[in-house]
Design a protein that fits this description.
The protein is an alpha/beta fold and 350 residues long. The chain is built from twelve helices and twelve strands. The strands form three sheets. The protein has a six-stranded mixed beta sheet.
């Protein structure tokens, strides 16, 4: 394989915690990949885009959105994700990702529960979909079902609606993350109607009996205009520990990535591993360290070995947090720069 890009959302620690976390982390392979690099650049990211940096980076890398800088950054994933679920978006139609969600009301603000923690089963997701779908049909904005937590809404007239990604909005005060634009009020009315449909629904009653959060709302984002053909991408996408919408951007055979499976695929690849996001969002730094330690054994060490023995020509690491991403490129020749000390210090520069 010539080039592999490994994308690790939330692999950059918070600046105020970085020094303490990196004292504990034992990751010599990651340190070698970062220290003995040919290029290494830190790019800041404006949260006014209402996305996380890796989302904007990936949308651009897949040919779905402009370069991830400035106000043009987008996460136009919906139509392409529909294809991954075997659905056929109509060319020219505008589609949104729609996720069943739990909005928590605190004393001073409303927050969005991390969608990963909802544990929504297919049976429950389908039951909630079947209740909501007729209303969406009635207003001319039909729904399509992907999986329990990933639905799609067509709304051709809502081209102005600016939405935030759920991972961007999670843990934030939603007063500044709710949809904006001319149709924001219509989106809020739709949300209220669905909340009433689901209020005291047997699915939610049963969930609460099991100690689970009620599905009391939904989250819209990822809008895109469908084209007749999917955009071409030079690299093949592989995913691991990914939510449904992200996994759907890869082919079924590439949704459970491992170094062996990726290296066996001779085409250049982008691999997105989402296992660090939940721990970082919840500031569970002990869990974050454990997961990064697992990545050291499962990914960094095997990829370093593949570089050294020539099975991999070039490796690019893209590591991010909420406000920036770090992109470092290394190769067999770069790994021969033995005079460079092997450290994790580049993770502190964020």
């Amino acid at each position: 394989m010539n080039q592999l890009t490994l994308v690790l959302p939330c692999a950059l620690p918070n600046a105020e915690l970085a020094a303490d976390l990196l004292k504990v982390l034992q990751a010599p392979a990651l340190a070698a990949l970062l220290s003995r690099s040919s290029t290494c650049n830190l790019e800041t990211f404006d949260n006014a885009n209402r996305l996380l940096p890796h989302e904007a980076w990936l949308a651009h890398a897949l040919g779905l959105a402009p370069a991830p800088n400035g106000e043009a950054a987008q996460a136009a994933f919906a139509a392409q994700a529909m294809r991954g679920y075997g659905l056929a978006p109509e060319p020219g139609g505008r589609y949104f990702l729609l996720h069943p969600a739990h909005l928590a009301i605190a004393r001073s603000h409303i927050s969005l529960e991390d969608l990963r923690q909802l544990n929504l089963s297919e049976a429950d997701g389908r039951a909630l979909f079947d209740i909501a779908a007729p209303y969406f049909d009635e207003i001319g904005q039909p729904l399509a079902y992907g999986d329990a937590g990933t639905w799609f809404m067509r709304a051709d007239g809502w081209s102005d609606l600016q939405c935030a990604s759920p991972d961007g909005a999670t843990t934030q005060d939603l007063s500044v993350w709710m949809p904006e634009g001319e149709h924001a009020r219509a989106a809020r009315r739709l949300q209220n109607e669905v909340q009433m449909l689901w209020h005291e629904h047997p699915v939610n009653a049963a969930r609460e009996e099991r100690g689970l959060k009620a599905i009391n709302s939904f989250w819209l984002w990822g809008a895109s205009q469908a084209t007749a053909q999917a955009p071409a991408c030079a690299a093949r996408l592989h995913t691991g520990d990914a939510p449904g919408w992200l996994a759907a951007l890869a082919t079924p055979a590439q949704r459970h990535a491992s170094p062996d499976s990726v290296l066996a695929d001779k085409q250049d690849a982008i691999v997105v591993l989402g296992g660090l996001i939940e721990a970082a969002q919840g500031q569970e730094w002990g869990m974050w360290l454990q997961q990064l330690q697992a990545l050291e054994a499962d990914w960094f060490a095997p990829l370093l070995a593949a570089l050294k023995d020539g099975r991999l020509g070039q490796l690019r690491l893209v590591l991010s947090h909420r406000d920036a991403w770090l992109a470092c490129t290394t190769s067999k020749n770069a790994q021969r720069k033995f005079w460079r000390a092997i450290t994790l210090n580049k993770l502190k520069a964020s």
